[in-house]
């Protein structure tokens, strides 16, 4: 019913295509004669592109706030310092991506296709839980090949704002607040101390911006700007907090 | 990326430890929580404590040698050793044998010349002076919290509350249940040991 049977061959072709596309892009243009083991090419040309990252999503009464840093790395090189890791899956459903850039982009594209198709069949906006389950289905089925940690968040009229976490391995769990990515370990304590149920949208935005800044300070794979978005019945509002505008904490 | 993060933590092996040392106005607070009964916080002199991170075997060997050096130094100087002296002794041992060793230390204490100090001797033998520092498997979870919450020149009560909260948060995430948190306060007046049982620790939002 969700076009999932059709989705299966689509998924494997897309994944193979992305992985194969990744290889020539990684090699330097002049490097056809140069072996990848050579010292002449930098280390990062041989590394997979990763969104080593910090992502966060918080539910509030009436919607969700999602946030991410903006650094994509290939080894020690920052391939993109203004990445947008908040990916639209549907009008009011977004996902935050962490892990392999290729894997997460591929999965997000596929789920967006499946969800769009399902929404047309249903003739109404899809549920966030449906989107989360589609992510989980792909992430679990191909768990051996994929490295993807995803937060699915959005608003639907049945349950309001919801955050679902689909970490590496393909588990699915709904949480009022969730963090992910390599930088997330550093802010569990901060999040536990500062999140309270019943916060409003602005408080959630501040909490997310503060938590992401702290993680970006400590995690080498996270950095750049903080991208925030809030999703509610009214729609999606996006914000960017630039480096010099990030909340500062006492430097000691 | 999450893979890198789990690799580095697996190398360290969760020993269910979190150690924290923080300077406040007039002294230092050393907080620690140990799942095991192995003693990782050692009093090397009257007002100097040394916390072990990393390989326990290496660290114990180093500490034994350091204690000897330090007491000898103290006799020669005819005065209590400085915190910096204790840290330097550890640093020398770690640096000279950096190829073989895998141990780090947090040295914290009070001395007459410089007051309360916290020094970190990292894995390769680097020595740095910091106002607040954390170590152990549970420490990764509270980097954000201490960055946000620590302020220089806190009062003793504020610092104790800060240390208790930080330890409680770390324990909550480091998969350790029950047990007891210890706080050691070192000031000019002396050493005070506060024990906080698990059920008296602050509770935070539990998902």
From TrEMBL, chain B:
Transcription is among the record's keywords: no
GO molecular function annotations of the record: threonine-type endopeptidase activity
GO BP annotations, alphabetical order: proteolysis involved in protein catabolic process
Active site: 17
Transmembrane segments: 12-34
Subcellular location: Nucleus
Reaction(s) the record says it catalyses: Cleavage of peptide bonds with very broad specificity
Any Pfam family hit: Proteasome
Alphabetical keyword list: Cytoplasm, Hydrolase, Membrane, Protease, Proteasome, Threonine protease, Transmembrane, Transmembrane helix
Enzyme class at the top of the EC tree: hydrolase
GO cellular component: cytoplasm; nucleus; proteasome core complex, beta-subunit complex
EC numbers for this chain: 3.4.25.1
Classification via InterPro entries: Ntn_hydrolases_N (IPR029055), Pept_T1A_subB (IPR000243), Proteasome_sua/b (IPR001353), Proteasome_suB-type (IPR023333)
PANTHER family: ATP-DEPENDENT PROTEASE SUBUNIT HSLV, METALLOPROTEASE TLDD
Function statement: The proteasome is a multicatalytic proteinase complex which is characterized by its ability to cleave peptides with Arg, Phe, Tyr, Leu, and Glu adjacent to the leaving group at neutral or slightly basic pH. The proteasome has an ATP-dependent proteolytic activity. This subunit is involved in antigen processing to generate class I binding peptides.
Name this protein carries in UniProt: proteasome endopeptidase complex
Gene source species: Oreochromis aureus (Israeli tilapia)
